[in-house]
Task: structure prediction
Amino acid sequence: MKAFLILLMALSLSSCANTMKSPPLKTVPHVDLQRYVGDWYVFAHIPYSLENGKVGTLDRYALRPDGKMDNIYLFRRGSLDAPLEQWKGVAWVHNPKTNAEWRVQFIWPLRVPYLIIDLDPEYQWSVVGYPNRKLAWVLSRQPVLDETTYKGILQRLADQGYDPQMLAKVPQIAP
Result:
């Protein structure tokens, strides 16, 4: 728990410093929350300590009556045969004009930005960025994503100032 808090504080501080060097990430113009909620497999991400060794990962979003969203992160440790575990968090829209900028909280009082920076028109894949560009997630409705689509996503991440070489695919259970 202590390591998690230190990591989030460091990311927040480095985000502030990096923001001065790079232009802000551009989010998509609009997100239809009704279409966005549901299950998203983590197809690829920029690895960091809290997700190291986790496989078969999935983010599950559900709208709540209070206007927020339940954010459940499902994962297995080290092997696709390992037991399924979960972390429960809450998310809410930070920019209601676009619905593309959220805040996510797994541990009070820490809130982290969730920026939807690329989104399939059919809501079959999504890319979530972090202001300092040290974190990113490529999400997919299916555990697989075709290579042409993935290469296009990597190019658009590069256009936003990311280093696509930093992304790693996450092992998933075959459909």
